[in-house]
Design goal:
Layout (H helix, E strand, L loop, with lengths): L11 E5 L5 H9 L4 E4 L2 H7 L8 E4 L8 H7 L2 E5 L2 H14 L3 E7 L15 H9 L4 E8 L7 H17 L4 E3 L6 H6 L4 E4 L1 H8 L1
Parallel strand pairs: 1-2, 1-8, 2-3, 3-4, 4-5, 5-6, 6-7
Helix pairs in contact: 3-4
């Protein structure tokens, strides 16, 4: 269970709505949640057009280039950009409909091969490329920390993300999930992505 009052007002709360029904999503929005995050374009395509309440919609899962067109149509922000190929695909689709898409770069801060995200050594090159794309607005960084109970490891990874945010003067830093959001907030997160723990706290 999460005590939402312990989350600073300056930190945005995203409800991760993967596998959640339209009814659950609508209920969570009525409780004051203003951002929802979906992992897969295919699932979002079935739900987002049917939402009755206006809410900010973010894509937080890996995006394939063949899904870029639909992602640009459905979402208000894409947090999972991790390659020049994806960035250029988003930019191309946005240019077709006159949209400028806010995006974050996903960083593989834990250096785990099974995770999406760009490595920190390749980050400067991707930033440079993306800043030259006229139909995307590079606003922040996103990361998923290692799945561990070791708080020192988590602090190290989250603190590195804060350093990168400050180095490149980004506005947003999306990090922290149900299991580690308190540590992420302490290390400078501006937005936490909460799924099960948030729904259990609000809808029970």
């Amino acid at each position: 269970m999460i005590d939402l009052n312990k989350i600073p007002a300056s930190v945005k709360i995203m409800a991760v709505t993967k596998t959640r029904s339209l009814l659950e999503i609508e209920k969570i929005i009525t409780k004051g949640i203003k951002i929802i995050g979906e992992n897969r374009v295919q699932e979002a395509e079935k739900k987002i057009p049917l939402l009755k309440t206006v809410v900010e919609k973010h894509l937080i899962g890996h995006l394939q280039t063949n899904k870029a067109k639909k992602a640009v149509e459905l979402f208000d922000c894409i947090e999972s950009v991790d390659s020049e190929k994806i960035a250029k695909a988003i930019n191309k689709e946005c240019s077709k409909i006159g949209k400028k898409m806010p995006v974050y770069i996903q960083v593989n801060i834990s250096d785990e091969p099974q995770k999406s995200g760009i490595s920190t050594d390749k980050l400067p090159s991707l930033i440079k490329t993306m800043k030259d794309l006229s139909h995307i607005s590079l606003e922040g960084l996103m990361a998923i920390a290692e799945d561990t109970d070791n708080k020192e490891k988590l602090k190290k990874q989250f603190s590195k993300m804060r350093e990168l945010k400050e180095k490149y003067n980004f506005k947003e830093l999306s990090m922290g999930m149900s299991e580690d959001f308190e540590t992420a907030i302490a290390c400078g997160s501006t937005q936490v992505r909460l799924g099960r723990a948030l729904f259990d706290s609000i809808l029970d």
